[in-house]
Amino acid sequence: MLVRNAAGRQVETTFGEVTMKPFSGARKYGFDSKLTTLEKALKHCGLKNGMTVSFHHQLRNGDFVVNQTLAAIKELGVKDIRLAQTALFTVHQPVIEYIKEGVVSRIEGSLNDSVGDYVSKHPLNSPVILRSHGGRWAAVKTGELAVDIAIIAASAADEHGNCTGVVGDSAFGPISYSQVDAMKAAHVIVVTDTIVEYPCQPQEIQERHVDYVAQVDQIGDPKMIVTGSLKITDDAEKLNIARQCVDLMDAAGLIENGMVFQSGAGGISLAAVKYLAERLEEKNVVASCATGGLTKFIIDIYRAGRVKKIYYSQVFDTESIQFIQHDLGLPADIGHYADPTSKGRTADSLDAVVLGATEVDVDFNVNVNTHSDGRLLHGIGGHQDTAAASYLTIITTPIFRKTNPIVRESVTTITTPGAVVDAIVTNRGIAINPLRKDLLKKIAGSIDFVPIETLKDMAYEATGGPASPNLGDDIIGIIKWFDGTVLDIVRRVQEDNI
Amino acid sequence: MLVRNAAGRQVETTFGEVTMKPFSGARKYGFDSKLTTLEKALKHCGLKNGMTVSFHHQLRNGDFVVNQTLAAIKELGVKDIRLAQTALFTVHQPVIEYIKEGVVSRIEGSLNDSVGDYVSKHPLNSPVILRSHGGRWAAVKTGELAVDIAIIAASAADEHGNCTGVVGDSAFGPISYSQVDAMKAAHVIVVTDTIVEYPCQPQEIQERHVDYVAQVDQIGDPKMIVTGSLKITDDAEKLNIARQCVDLMDAAGLIENGMVFQSGAGGISLAAVKYLAERLEEKNVVASCATGGLTKFIIDIYRAGRVKKIYYSQVFDTESIQFIQHDLGLPADIGHYADPTSKGRTADSLDAVVLGATEVDVDFNVNVNTHSDGRLLHGIGGHQDTAAASYLTIITTPIFRKTNPIVRESVTTITTPGAVVDAIVTNRGIAINPLRKDLLKKIAGSIDFVPIETLKDMAYEATGGPASPNLGDDIIGIIKWFDGTVLDIVRRVQEDNI
Fold first, then answer.
1. What angle do the packed helices B296-303 and B267-283 form, to 10 degrees?
2. Do B151 and B267 belong to one domain?
3. Based on the domain organization, do B296 and B424 belong to the same domain?
4. Average per-residue pLDDT in chain B?
5. Residues A361 and A422 in one domain
6. How far, in whole angstroms, is CA B265 from its chain's centroid?
């Protein structure tokens, strides 16, 4: 049908089965500052009872943003919020009060420490849902976890909403968890204490996704956001475990030119990086890249020419912050790193990863979520993602802690199933998953290992065996595998047991 | 309901109204090379008759990828392809043969030059649909333009599919048009002549979106991809027009600290950048950023400390390629630059932009698509996007070319409606859109201007007025406004007129 449009033209609007609208007028676009207060931003986003509000955890135990936001939500008289943070820390203890007051009634995300302890004993209306980094990204991407308002803490932002975690007094490293929230949430608020001249550089989150920029006095305590200087343990037993991890990688033929390894900031993991650095030198090997978290120790390897590229999703210490301020390199957001619904993840290239555990069992199942008393005190993090992705997934642990056997018949909670766990390296020996016949063949003759049952027996002998946690029937938590299925459930801890 | 899952756990799967699937098993992920040939990649992607295949145009007139892909499609015996390229150039003349053979039957995208001439005279089954850069991004994003297979030319890629246009023999600048294709297309093929060690750095497109990496001998002719050294015109009339543009910006109060300006590579636009650089020096002004296309001239301004940041979506000359290889700075993909469905675009910050025209009319409507004989020879590019975004949108043109009046009663085709066009700067005077009373007030007394009708009268006097194009009834093209509406239609050119 020919119609006269707003430009005065006679235009056809029907083409076969396709109908198009005629031009209805043009206007000038422009820019209005998005700068406001946190409270106003929440109001303008239409905050109301029952909404889902998301956060990233990159300010770690220095974060002020979750608490400030919940205070503003309470001030606005809104209740029944579903928290969708990537993780909580000790600093988030006030969340317990918001739960008691009904401001927060549901949680999907890690709740380390005190909030975890509380929720373990006081079930919320629905169980807390825990996902791995990659699993959470996928859940937000697919709409399984629909976010109404994404709160994105930034150490610097411009008035348009372009923002970063790389510069500013509270720098924490590139924002890497929030891109999917920015794309998928109905509303997006950037929270910052540092407004920079347009355009903010670098900019991990861009204005195209941002509704408001909320300026606050301080987003966090810089001393608690990154560690000034990470130290490698001097515990001889831990150092020995770390060294055996590197021996195992070497025996498996992985310490070769082009190697890809994961780095973390945990005690044994950090020590393993140090020993790996020495082994790269000894063997005159150049790795192709390190992935995961950036630390001074990785930078040392890079500067020594022993790793060509650094792919990082987190930054852990001051030296690394300074390093990326000078050269951003290859930051990888969590979707790039671990989204299981994607066509390829950086984690999939891993040759070796060293991970921890609160418990392991004779089926090589690993628990990192609950303690043996049943309390849900830790998140999944990248444990599942990297374990399933790495050619050699090593779990390090002592066989017992105090009177508690860590290697046991059955873990209290499964975080990562034994099917993707390859080796358990302990203070009393190494066990190799019998499913990995290829690995067993490679290391035969160069690495001593024992059946995992032997490690369990030693642990039981030393401790008298595991105590039974005192659990109720209520389900307080759901552990999801990163494909969205229910891997395990966590039941209420009866208070009189504690 | 409690069920026993694949990890041997009794888990609940129903929580209120939410049902979840029980864990069904874990497997190791890993990496298989995505490297293959272009033909095999197309086959593996399930190429079939009627599919939509997209391309970016950043290899410009040096591009071999569109022609190679169509040759492979023909070889596979597939027909009726809808081309969804961002633009075609002279090098793509073979597309005419593919149209004649039925390999290509529909086109959504710019078809500059010979293909445009052909289609103007030989309608395809459906009209060609032309969109601005931002409009195309939005159409792919919203699904209005659904892409089956995205072909992404890269000057370097790794076997995982991470890729770039910044390094390699055929470097063309950061890939900036294809992110939305990568995210939305059902299948994605990266085409490159340079395989680099994993991980490719930088990486504008990441493995998470890529199905196959097709290695070809050469993606293009480097000499035709970027210009060795751009030269500023020495045509006195053009230089005079460029200088008047800068005078107009200055009179409008825009040449102040914090200014944001758009840079291009067209003759007058380039000269305007040169004069703007001089004016910044004279007035001791520091702009906050330049957006658009990067050239040596912008880099000179940056090095002189007269612009703080460079936001660029394209790279035009060898010096700029070398510059970004050293420091990537702030590349802006086309969605960031101009997606009209986003919450903020870099273009919206523009204080001033200088654009061209094939015709302008007394309502300040601008044509950049057709010549006055009706032939559809040019794309929209960023014309609409920047015109609607910039505070001061200047169109530069001579009032006539040879015997053809450029300033006229009515443009042959509307590309950008007069509502967003502020000034016409010509070799015979300046006209200001009477709708812009604010602008008129600012420049009164410092800039001489005339009614646009005066410019038209002069053009008609010199040429005897416009000739009527000899057009048929068939609609061969649709010009969309960036919001998806029909701004104008283009009718068939009768061959005997040419």
1. 10
2. no
3. yes
4. 96
5. yes
6. 13
Mean pLDDT, consecutive 10-residue stretches, chain A (498 aa), reads: 96 95 96 96 98 98 98 98 97 98 97 94 96 98 98 98 98 98 98 98 98 98 90 93 98 98 85 96 97 94 97 94 94 97 96 96 98 97 97 97 97 98 98 97 96 98 97 97 98 77
State if pTM tops 0.95: yes
Task: From chain A, pick out residues whose CB is under 8 angstroms from the CB of B366.
Answer: none
Task: Give the domain-ending residue among B225, B241, B264.
Answer: B225
Mutate to test the interface with B, among A486, A488, A491 (most CBs of B within 10 A): A486
Q: What pLDDT, on a 0 to 100 scale, did the predictor assign at position A496? A: 63
Residue B425 lies in a domain: yes
CB contact at 8 A, A376 and A128: yes
Residues of B whose CB is below 8 A from A22: 485-486
**Is B485 inside a domain boundary?**
no
| Domain CATH code at residue A93 | 3.40.1080.10
Residues A487 and B6: their CA atoms lie apart, in Å, by 8
Q: What pLDDT does residue A498 have?
A: 46
Average pLDDT over residues B65-94: 98
d(CA B253, CA A330): 41
State the SS3 of B49-90.
CCCEEEECCCCHHHECHHHHHHHHHHHCCCCCEEEEECCCCH
Do A392 and A440 fall into the same domain?
A: yes
Number of compact structural domains in chain A: 2
The answer to whether residue B28 is domain-embedded is no
Q: How many CB pairs under 8 A join A and B?
A: 235
Half-sphere exposure at residue B452, Cβ-oriented, CA atoms within 13 angstroms: 27
Domain end among A225, A241, A258 = A225
| Nearest-neighbour CA in chain B from A234: distance (Å) | 34
Asked if the structure places residue A102 within a domain, the reply is yes
Binary contact (A309, B488; C-beta < 8 A): no
Q: Looking at the structure, do residues B196 and B339 belong to the same domain, yes or no? A: no
Structure tokens at A470: 């005192």
Q: Give the domain extent around B424.
A: 228-468
Together in a domain, A288 and A213: no
Which tokens go with B444?
Answer: 């009164």
A185 and A92 belong to one structural domain:
yes
Identify all chain A residues contacting B343, using CB atoms and an 8 Å cutoff.
161, 188, 207-211
Query: Which chain B residue is nearest to residue A364, measuring alpha carbons?
Result: B7
pLDDT value at B498 more than 90: no
Is B496 a residue whose pLDDT tops 70? no
**Do B198 and B318 lie in a common domain?**
no
In this complex, the residue of A5, A308, A336 whose CB is nearest that of residue B486 is: A5
Nearest 5°: CA angle at A379, between A352 and B208? 55
pLDDT digits 0-9 by tens, B241-264: 999 999 999 999 999 999 999 977
Q: With pLDDT > 70 as the criterion, what percentage of chain B qualifies?
A: 99
